[in-house]
Every structure is written in C-alpha cells, then in structure tokens.
C-alpha cells in the first residue's frame, strides 16, 4: 500500500503548480482533450492572464510577484467555484474548465473575477484579463476554442493597457 501512496504523491507533485497549488501545464497538456470531451456541456474554457506582473516583479521584487500570482490563483479558484480544473500554464497565465456553463454564466464569472480583483488590498493594483469560449460539443476542436478564448483575453488585456496608460497620464 505504501508504494501506491508514494506513486500517488509523486503524480500529485508532478501535476501540481508548486507556487499556487493548482494544476500545472504538464497536467493541462495531458488532460485537456479528455476534460473537454467529458465535461458536462455546455462547458466553459476560460483563459486568464495576470496584468502587469512584470511591473510588480521589476518594481517590488519577485516575492511580491509570487504573492501576486498566488492571490490571482486564489481569486480565480474562488470565482470559478472549483479548484480541480484550474491550471497555471505559464508564468502569468491560467486556464480553467467549467462544466454546465453557458455564455451568461460565463459573463457572471468574469464579473465576479473583476469584483474580487477590486477588493484586493495590495500595494499594487490587482487585475486579471479574462477571455473565454463556450464548448457545446464533446467532439469540439480544442485548439480552435483555446485560440478563441486566448484572443478574447488578449482584447481585454489591450483595453486594460489603454486604461492604465490614461490613468497614469492623468496623475
């Protein structure tokens, strides 16, 4: 029994993001197709990218940057209401799958993420750009949906950049 426990622990470590405790990129790459096929439809593919992480790292140091990443992971987990499908796939990028999720449910989740960001009391502004794609069918093309969610996220990021530039200009 001990060997089984050990293997389970190794697998858990191999698939867990050490900083945030959510799932990591290797796990995402291995399981994305499977999750997409088996999730109750419609399901949501959500892509979230932390805003201005580089700026926080550069001005306040990597400890602050790590804290920023952990804060965002926690609020994303809170907003999507489940931790077992949140993946950190890059330094500042997260992906989540949410079962039984329509377009209007997705809008509510995005609003919740914005609200949670606004409530954070940090020495820097906490902000996450979010994009999504609703998957209706088990045989959907994952790459297509991921690209769609990613470009949706990128459009929000551009808006955020314009907003912060105009705010900084107004000081």
Explain what the structure shows.
The chain has 171 residues and is α+β, with helices and mostly antiparallel strands. Helices cover 58% and strands 16% of the residues. It contains six helices and five strands; from the N terminus they run αβαβααββαβα. The protein has helices spanning 2-15, 25-38, 53-60, 62-80, 103-119, 142-169; strands spanning 23-24, 43-50, 86-88, 93-98, 128-135. Strands 1-3-4-2-5 form a five-stranded mixed sheet, with helices on both faces. The protein starts with a helix and ends with a helix. The mean pLDDT is 92.
Radius of gyration: 17 Å
Structure class: alpha+beta
Distance between the termini: 63 Å
Mean pLDDT: 92
In which order are the strands of the major sheet placed?
A: 1-3-4-2-5
By DSSP, the count of extended strands is 5
> Topology as H/E string?
HEHEHHEEHEH
| Biggest sheet overview | 5 strands, mixed
- Overall 3D form: globular
β-strand percent reads: 15-25%
Low-confidence stretches are none
Q: Which percent range fits the helix content?
A: 55-70%
Note the total helix count.
Answer: 6
